[in-house]
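#data-curation
PF: Archiving a pair of folding outputs for the training set. Convention for this channel: one message per protein, sequence first, C-alpha cells after, nothing in between. First:
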Amino acid sequence: MGKKKKYQEDRKKVDPEKRYSLDQALEILESFSKAKFDESVDVALRLGIDAKQSDQVIRGAVGLPNGTGKKVRVAVFAKAEKVKEAEDAGADIVGSDDLVQKIQGGWLEFDTTIATPDMMGLVGKLGKVLGPRGLMPNPKLGTVTNDLVKAIQETKAGKVEFRTDKAGIVHAPVGKRSFGRQKLKENISTLIEAVVKAKPASSKGTYLQVISISGTMTPGVFIDPETVIVQ
C-alpha cells in the first residue's frame, strides 16, 4: 500500500469533529500504519492568548521525563577553563570567536546553543542568524549560564524549548512512536503542565483551546484539553 493510500486509511480512524481523551488519542496514534523509520511525535497547543501582545508571548523550556528520542547536537560558546568543562560534559562543539566566524560563514550543524554570560557580547553578532531560527542562547531558558555541565546534560537528556508562534500555537516534539503510550503520555502531560504554568496574567478566557497530536507521517488527532489539564 502506498503512502497516500495508507494516510487515507488512517484518516478514516479519526473523527475530525471529535475531541478525544489523551488515552484515546494515543491509542488511535498507535493504530496508525507505521513508516519505515521511527517517526517523531509532535504536539500542537492552540492557546487563548493575543500573540500580537508582547506580554502574552509564551516561551519556556521543560525537561521531558522520557526525553525526545532525538540526538541533540549542542554548540557552546565559552572560553578559558570553561572550554574543557563544556567538552567534558558532552558538548558537540565549543568555541568563541572561531565558532562565531564558522556560523557567520553558514555552518549550522547543531540543534541548540548554550553560552556563558561573558560570551553574550560576542554571540550578539549572530542575532540575525540564530534569532529567527530560535537558536539564540537565553537566560530565561537556562541556556545562558556558568553551569555548563547542568545545561548540557539537561539538553542532551531531552529538554525541550517551546514558544508561541504568530498564531498563538506552541509546537513541540514529545518523543518517538516507539516510546509507546505510557511514555508519550508522561511527556505530553509534562509539556502541557509547563505551558499552563507559563500562562500570562493578562490572558483572558479559555487558555488551552485546542490540542492535537500527530506522528511525522500520520494524520492529527484532536484531544479534549479537559482530559489533560494538570494542577
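PF: Second:
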Amino acid sequence: MPTLNEIAIVTNGRLFGSKNFLVNSINIPSKATKEELCVVFEKKFLEFIFKTDSEAFLISEDLIKHISIPIDKNFIAVKNSRDSLVNLAKIFLFDKKSEFIKLSEGSTFNLSEIGVNSFISSSSRLGNNCTIGSNVLIEANVLIGDSCSIGNNVVIHQGTKIGNNVYIGSGSIIASEGFGNIRVNEKWEHLPHFGNVDIHQDVRIGANCCIDRGTIGDTIIFEGVVIDNLVHIAHNVEIGEYSAIAAKTGIAGSSLIGKRNMIGGMVGIIDHIKTADDVIISATSTVNKDLKEPGTYTGIMPISKHAMWKRIALWITKLDKIAKFLNLKKI
C-alpha cells in the first residue's frame, strides 16, 4: 500500500498530515472507509470531510481554502485535478498483464458447463456450479458467486464482483471504462476509472449490455434487478433492488435508480438523476429531473431546435393555469 507521501509526490501535491499514513484504495466522499483516500474535487463534497470515516483526502487547492483542516485528518492539496487522477492510475489501477488460465483446463473450478476458448485470470475466483459460454474473458481480481451463468463472448473486466445466481447474456461487457473524458485545449482526454462494478445476487442481464465501471467508487446493481438486451449503464450508477429495465435504455453517470422501478424501452436518463422507489417510466421518455415520488412518469416531446423546445416546454407546464385563468373547462 502506498503512503500519503508517495501519493503526494506522484500527484505533485502539498501534504498536510502524516507522511507514513497507508492508503489501500480511493473512493468517493460518501462511501470512503478509514484507509481509503477520499477524493474531493467539488464543493458539494466538502461536508463529507467531517462525516466520513476516511482519514486521508485528495483535495483541489481552490477548495482547501474553504475549510479549517481537522487535526485528525490528512490532506493532499493539488492544483490540477485531472492530472492528479491520471497520475494516481500509476499506483492504484490493476496490472492487466495477468496470467490467464484456459477454463477447460482449470481443474480447480467446479463448473457445470464450459464453452470453448474461454479464459480466466489466475487471480480471479469462480463459485460452484457456474456455466461459462464460449470465448469468455474474465480479467484479474474478479469474484463470481455460485450458480452463475455467463453467456458466449462476454468480457468481465478486472475487479468486478458478482453475487450468486446471476445471469449475464451473450456479448455483454461488464466493467469497461466509461465515457469519462475532459476537454483540454480543444482535445478530449480520457480520465482513468478507479471504481469497479458490484452486481448483487439474483440479477439477470440481457445480451449486448454495457455496464461501465465507476470513475471513483463503484457502479452497483442491487439484488433481483432484471435488465433487457442492449442496455447501457454508465459509471457510478446504482440500480435499486428488483428494478426492471427494458431494451435500448441508457442511464448516464452517477444516477441513482430507486427500488422496484420499471423503466420502459428506449428511455434516456441524464446524469446525476435520482428516482424514488416504485417509479414507472414510460417507453421512449427522457428523464432530465429527479423523480421524487412513486408513480408513472412520461416525458415525450417531438424534437425541435433547443430554444424552441424550451419555449414549448414552458408553455405546456402552464397550460392548466392558463385554462383556469381563462375560465375554460378542463378537457
